[in-house]
Amino acid sequence: MAKRKTKYVCQDCGYESAKWMGKCPGCNNWNTMVEEIEASTVRGRSSISNGTQSVSKPESITAIESQKEPRITTAMKEFNRVLGGGIVLGSLVLIGGDPGIGKSTLLLQISSQLAEKQLPVLYVSGEESTRQTKLRADRLGIKSDLLYVLSETNLFDIGKQIEEVRPSFVVIDSIQTIFKEEVTSAPGSVSQVRECTVELMKIAKSNGIPIFIVGHVTKEGAIAGPRLLEHMVDAVLYFEGERHHTYRILRGVKNRFGSTNEMGIFEMKEEGLREVLNASEIFLEERSEGTAGSTVVASMEGTRPVLVEIQALISPTSFGNPRRTATGIDHNRVPLLMAVLEKRVGLMLQNQDAYIKVAGGVKLDEPAIDLALSVSIASSYRDKPTNPDDIFIGEVGLTGEIRRVSRIEQRVQEAAKLGFKRVICPKNNLEGWTFPKGIKVIGVSTVQEALEIGIIS
User: Fold this and answer.
1) Is residue 8 part of a domain?
2) What pLDDT does residue 189 have?
């Protein structure tokens, strides 16, 4: 009998300790240490010392042949874009999101599309029975003989079914419900999640089967379980959006086979998720023209430009310390730009409350939105609207200068496509490219120039 020992593992970060502690030293969270029992193994000599096993030798980087990873494309172009062009064979992808956001619906639709291409798909549900999955499939109109549904939580039985069915695509919904018999801890614990993910990774790599695993999220919005889980998989996708709104955003935060800056937008319908190909029209369809504090910026999400409305509300404060509230952007950027406007333009904003919002629930984090944000703040403070046909693009420096941004051609082309007449952008971005027809591009070098051009006097 192998000697068994007890250890305490943090369920949030995976920190291990020989004794119980109320506060985890790794993540500083309280009451997250759970007792687990593991069997200690006898360590043998390494293959280097005894020489009985072959040792891989290093190769020159120039001698290694480069190969293009084969991909499986789905009928959803937005889904393919986020993954970098499609599903890579043998990849292990983790998708997380709030409960009820639509993770299972998305993966069931993807499974149906692959099954219709004559690719066998195994959908493993540890939270629902096969009849419950069938009800969702009927609502989505899924009818394919090559889509197999399995309600199982034992990893050994799941592996046996993968060997028998030989699917081209596997979905595990969710990893927190799967357990391995050799691990004594409960399903969803750090040890179970880690060991089950390792086994699934071996199955994916050895058989060339792409496996998608669904992960629960904590109340802070991060995927539950140890951070090691995100390091083990090839790609991590987050499915975001408000449950009471119809639009969903699929965002990649890790991708070994593509860019992590891509974003896919979907709309939740009664018959399932429908991809939104022109996101700019969605974010601007309810815009109020002729209202002070409203501007439009052309932001880049990966390789696609997205036109988004930025709204600002500036009002006198009733307290000693004015409020600075921001939704959809970094809240530290608001007082920084307000300080630039106060110092370089002369706006008295130190006694004003500022409320900033990015319409549509989009999160913007690139510096190219600085100019649009500054113009919206000044427009609301002066109570004078901006021209509804103007687009503002540019980074604002602390001295009030407008700095150049990347991919200006794609931003301007997207603005021209949606009927905007003028683009106010950095003067240093005007050289080396041809402007689209029907739109005027105006270069500015300071915030003061942009305000004189953009705000209606």
Assistant:
1) yes
2) 81
